[in-house]
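Teaching assistant here, posting this on the class forum so everyone can see the example we discussed in section. The complex has two components, and the goal was to see what a joint structure prediction looks like when all of them are supplied at once.
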Amino acid sequence: MLRWYPAAWRDRYGEELVTLMADQTDGRRPPLSMRIDVARAGLRERRRQAGHCGDVRPPAERVRAGALLVLCGWALFVVAGAVFQKSSEHFASALPRTARWPALTAFDVVVVAAVIGLLIVAAGALAALPAFVRFLRGGGWPSVRRLVLTTTLSTATEAGALGALIPWAHSLPAGQRNGGSSLYTAAFLGLALFTAVSVALWTALAVACARRIEMAPRLLRLEVGLAVALFVLMIVVTVSVAVWWGSVGSAAPWFLHGARAGTGSSAFDPNLGVSLTLMLLAVAVASSGVTRILRHRHVLHGS
Amino acid sequence: MVRTSRSDGLRRPNDPALLILTSLATGPKHGHALSKDIEDFAQVTLGPGTLYGAITRLEERGLIEPAGSDSRRKPYRMTAAGSAALAEAVAELSRLAEVGAARLRIDGAPA
């Protein structure tokens, strides 16, 4: 149960907490309500230690934590975007010519915003690179080595799996690729899951490094600005995806089910539902980061 | 540094931090004794995670401190800052209770 807590907290209070739990349960297995209480408190402690809530960290670190929370939201957004991309493949040809422009415009906005978002993330990483090099030269490598190796291994494995899947996909007819072959579908879903894990690992690595490097006030201001811009883009993309769904759903609902033109009237698509839900969740995560930034923005003006 | 009750989150009568400080007002106690005492006087059951979350924050703010002795059941006691914060919170809650009681009498509503 103590695994829910950060290591430093466990060292200080872990034994006392275990003793209290044993006292309250007379040494028996803790009930579910107690386990939930401990897990919730442990996660809250982790968030406090990371500067995501509470005031245990200095204001500048809380601002940095806010920016990193936006990055975590973006990572979730990338996964949601991949689901949307898959669901929207070849949509334009399914729409009647007169009803194309709203969906096409919304889709173009999504694509442009996604590219700008990637550039923003790359700019943030590049700006932090000198500080990261100083961190490594200062002996920081051992603290991130395990995560770097895990992330590299995961990405290399994913790239290998992708390299094997692409020729296979090209050798299959469209029907087989789109649910006809259960083996291919399983492999595709496995790769998608692997990709999500890799995105999560890269994000964890970025957060671990960003929390450890020395961030000069100017760099912090830049990173915060980029984070806020990323947040705005996420809102733009989410709205655009909703508009795209609405447009395609009203003009060509059959496309959303992969059915023949003119058949079916329901605009609901479970994949799009998952995508939009993930996007909204990502926006919620990022908005809590932006709230944290705004709450402590005086640090940025004062430095 | 003594903080105001507002910043310590001691405004709600069922706030775990306020309940812990109230319990420690009668002397040092370890986790289980605190939990039992709070259950007795406030009829509130604090889970171990909630209790130690509040203990962590109170200790960080210097409102309580370990009282030494047994390592497995470490007792805590209130500091002077904790005593001041509790007094302020109690005064604030009393003022609120007085206003509530007075308004109930004015409106003629049953207590």
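For the discussion questions: The first helix of chain B runs from residue 5 to 8. Residues 1-7 of chain B have pLDDT under 50 and may be disordered. Think about how each of these relates to the inputs above.
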